Recover the amino acids of this structure.
């Protein structure tokens, strides 16, 4: 008797390490052309709602949890409440960040403001929340330079702006080391919006900046799908470069149509092949950080919870398809064929320079016409993946 194969589960587990920014579920659907479409939920309700749904972790901005001008006592009370919710639901605080963009004080930047008083206020605001984040157990502290950019280039020297940004990160690195917080920093690149141009627009820019810091070992990157696609770039490649550099300390997953405003749609809703390949990358390279969804529900949603369930369910669905692709004999055979060329000795030679190797290479005879004749199966490979995704094989 044939046994019915059990359907793979799309239910999220803690070990999936899914996280959400609480600002995502607090989002009320307002946009530049329209007001809110759903009621405000508080930061505490957001943490609780995520915890109740089995989400592994949450990320927050300081002012998602307490108002900008909250007294120290009020802030302590909120932190106490967050810790209670963490204890009762099992949710962890996986990352934190500072809101350095909402208040008009930051209208011309925070760490890159012309005004040293604004820069000092921004650094102080980060210090206060870094201490709270450490207390909540966050191991990653994010810097998304929302207002760190320019609209009038003649009025802001980009060289000076980058130096100011570096000074602030260096200052905060020393602070974290002195406090003995177990925490790394993470830069979140974005090309534009709300500024015309943002400094550190891509993962590559962030990686280059990190190399110039006083403590590069304690700073990584959390690239975000939407920010990458706003620049017309490829999320798979951006994530891969951070991963290869050992700098992928967190990841912000969502959906986005290329070269448009920041859409922040749910993960995998727009480009299934791209989503599958991102999931496969994280699986293939045993990415151990949290998989954080930084997106928001469609403006048409009455509450955020279908969106939350959907993002996690989508990730699990793509994971199943990635496993199917890995196990697909036809696809594997074609992929292997790309690598099977008999050129292993050249690969070894190029892998480690030696004078003898260079001499051998200089004297070698290649036949470019013959090299060009090889049949590459890209059309077939791509179509096979399409059919796997569509459930046809
Ligand atoms: Mn983000």
């Amino acid at each position: 008797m044939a046994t019915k194969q059990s359907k793979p589960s799309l239910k999220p587990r803690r070990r999936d390490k899914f996280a959400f920014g609480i600002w995502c579920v607090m989002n009320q659907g307002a946009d530049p052309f329209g007001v809110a479409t759903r009621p405000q939920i508080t930061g505490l309700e957001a943490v609780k709602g995520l915890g109740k749904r089995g989400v592994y972790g949450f990320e927050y901005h300081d002012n998602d949890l307490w108002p900008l001008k909250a007294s120290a006592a009020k802030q302590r009370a909120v932190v106490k409440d967050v810790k209670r919710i963490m204890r009762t639901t099992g949710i962890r605080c996986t990352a934190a960040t500072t809101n350095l963009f909402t208040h008009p004080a930051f209208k011309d930047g925070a760490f890159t403001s012309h005004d040293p008083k604004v820069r000092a206020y921004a650094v102080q605001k980060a210090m206060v929340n870094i201490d709270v984040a450490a207390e909540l157990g966050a191991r990653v502290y994010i810097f998304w330079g929302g207002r760190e950019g320019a609209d009038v280039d003649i009025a802001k020297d980009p060289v000076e702006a980058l130096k100011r940004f570096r000074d602030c990160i260096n200052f905060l690195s020393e602070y974290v080391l002195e406090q003995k917080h177990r925490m790394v920093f993470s830069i979140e690149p974005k090309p534009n919006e709300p500024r015309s141009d943002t400094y550190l627009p891509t993962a590559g820019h962030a990686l280059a900046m990190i190399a110039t810091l006083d403590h590069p070992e304690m700073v990584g990157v959390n690239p975000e799908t939407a920010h990458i696609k706003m620049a017309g770039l490829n999320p798979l490649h951006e994530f891969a470069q951070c991963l290869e550099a050992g700098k992928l300390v967190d990841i912000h997953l969502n959906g986005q149509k290329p070269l448009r405003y920041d859409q922040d749609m749910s993960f995998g809703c727009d480009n299934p092949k791209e989503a599958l390949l991102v999931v496969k990358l994280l699986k293939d390279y045993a990415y151990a950080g949290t998989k954080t969804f930084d997106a928001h529900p469609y403006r048409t949603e009455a509450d955020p919870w279908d969106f939350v369930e959907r993002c996690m369910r989508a990730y699990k669905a793509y994971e199943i398809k990635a496993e199917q692709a890995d196990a697909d004999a036809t696809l594997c055979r074609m992929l292997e064929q790309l690598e099977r060329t008999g050129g292993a000795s050249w690969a070894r030679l190029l892998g480690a320079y030696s004078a003898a190797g260079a001499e051998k290479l200089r004297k070698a005879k290649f036949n470019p016409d013959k090299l060009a004749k090889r049949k590459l199966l890209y059309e077939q490979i791509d179509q096979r993946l399409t059919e796997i995704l569509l459930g046809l094989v």
Observations:
- The chain has a mean pLDDT of 96.
- Strands lie at 18-21, 57-61, 92-97, 140-144, 149-150, 184-188, 197-198, 219-221, 251-253, 291-293.
- The CA atoms of residues 60 and 96 lie 5 Å apart.
- The chain has two domains: 14-326, 329-389.
